[in-house]
């Protein structure tokens, strides 16, 4: 969990993904389209990826990816992020965290 907190706090927007996950790809693309440049940690390509994945499940991420953090705070997975985007609050969260500027 400490490793997740450390990684999640290094940048305004952080996404834990797997390179083979289509939903992870969709979330990353959404962030890029909104103008954010998130830190992306592909767990299937990281040495301690399995350990991080288990810790994410401990946080309530099921499935474990994508796991999105904004401003160091766990936001959720695909459904949560899409819901925030649809109701218009995702963009404001990214602005507040200084992940995008307007």
From TrEMBL:
SUPFAM superfamilies noted in UniProt: Thioredoxin-like (SSF52833)
Domain of life of the source: Eukaryota
Subcellular location field: Cytoplasm
Entry-linked InterPro entries: GlrX-like_pln_2, Glutaredoxin, Thioredoxin-like_sf
Cellular-component GO terms for this entry: cytoplasm
Location of the Glutaredoxin domain: 14-75
UniProt keyword annotations, A-Z: Cytoplasm, Redox-active center
Family: Belongs to the glutaredoxin family. CC-type subfamily.
Name the record gives this protein: Glutaredoxin-C11
Lineage: Eukaryota, Viridiplantae, Streptophyta, Embryophyta, Tracheophyta
